[in-house]
Amino acid sequence: MRRPQRYHRAPMHRYPRWPLHVMLVAISFAMLLPFYWVLKTSLTGENIFVYPPSILPHHPQPFYYVDVWYFIPFARFLLNSVVVSVLAIVANVVFNAMAAYSLTKNFAGRGWTITLLLSCMMIPFQTTIVPAYLITGKLGLLNSYLGLALPTFSTIVCIFVYKASFDAVPNSLVDAARIDGLSEFRILLQIMLPLSTSAIATNVILAFIWSWNNFLWPLIVVRDQAMQTLPLGLSRFLSDHENTTGALYAFCIMVLAPGIALFLMAQKEFIRGLTSGATKG
Amino acid sequence: MAGRTRRILLSRFVVVPTACMVVVIIWNAYVAAHADGVVTGRVVDGSGHAIADATVRMMEQNFTTNSQRGAARTDANGAFRFDDNRSHSIQLRAEKEGVGRSDQRAVRLYFRSQHIDLRQPLVLKGPPQ
Lengths: 281, 129
Fold this sequence. Notes:
Helix content of chain A: 55-70%
CATH superfamily of the largest domain in chain B: Carboxypeptidase-like, regulatory domain
CATH class of the domain at 79-245 in chain A: Mainly Alpha
Largest sheet of chain B: 5 strands, antiparallel
Number of helices of chain A: 13
Number of strands of chain A: 0
Radius of gyration of chain B: 22 Å
Largest sheet of chain A: none
CATH architecture of the domain at 79-245 in chain A: Orthogonal Bundle
CATH topology of the largest domain in chain B: Immunoglobulin-like
Number of helices of chain B: 2
Shape of chain B: elongated
Structural class of chain B: alpha+beta
Strand content of chain B: 25-35%
Order of helices and strands of chain B: HHEEEEEEEEE
Strand content of chain A: under 5%
Shape of chain A: globular
Oligomer: heterodimer
Radius of gyration of chain A: 24 Å
Order of helices and strands of chain A: HHHHHHHHHHHHH
């Protein structure tokens, strides 16, 4: 019986790829090591300056997390952070999508508007913090959730992420929707946004992480402890309790966990959203 | 339409938060059922005999402070009981005049007021010779 002839696929790469993979694994390991160290310390409370350092945790236990939950108003900080982040995410998706949709249209001064937005990206937030504070104060929003979220309501980077995604939608589809009688708002809502889920995911993740980790703005705007967010709580914890290594690291893990979980859930869409439009044209 | 709804419901953006929420609800139900503030245990001497009428002091531990919360006396079987623990981190110490005093034992609980029955008794050690 004649054996079926085997066809070997031509090698796609000239050199073996395993050295590259080994290098990437080593780099990944080096980047994950600090996170592992934080996690290990949060479970053991071992002093980080102990020599020789132990790689594996000895007698891990969750009680430092319990300490953090009860000894400081963690639940209140968590609630504040969640409320501010949700406000920032919703406002980001709405405002950025509308701004990006307008930039896909031809209008007088469009080029200047894009240039202005791009140049505004170069200005660090610290330089605009005084006018931002004065405006928030005039609006009567100091020490409020809305005031905490206000500066993160729109981000220029995400406007361009949406714009790249909207540019990839064929004009014929938009024209067909217009002929069918859809208003511009409904075209955005029913045509553009459903086709731009990656951009939405990118915006949601970035808005969440920026809002969640924001420290400087809440530090300036918040006056009551009841309105403090998690980064402020962490800073306060550091200043109030000195010799509490395990609890401090447990607090860090509890602050980091939601952002990491959200990123792991949406990383595929996040990367797709950032790279969409990169190969267009 | 049904397929789309099913796809949305089974997506990780729905499944993961829902699973987290279920875990939180179950945990809170467990906490509510076991947070009666009862701490029980026994006091024995070095040879394992129950010590009656010993005084057991309970202290609440904080990051910075350690304050006494209450005291109880052991019965004829050496058993003691506190009904009003409101902390998740306590320390217990037993003593009886003429017999000795135990080490101060830190008891860490998984949540405030957790019902706990100490497996290891507090052991009174005689005064140093």
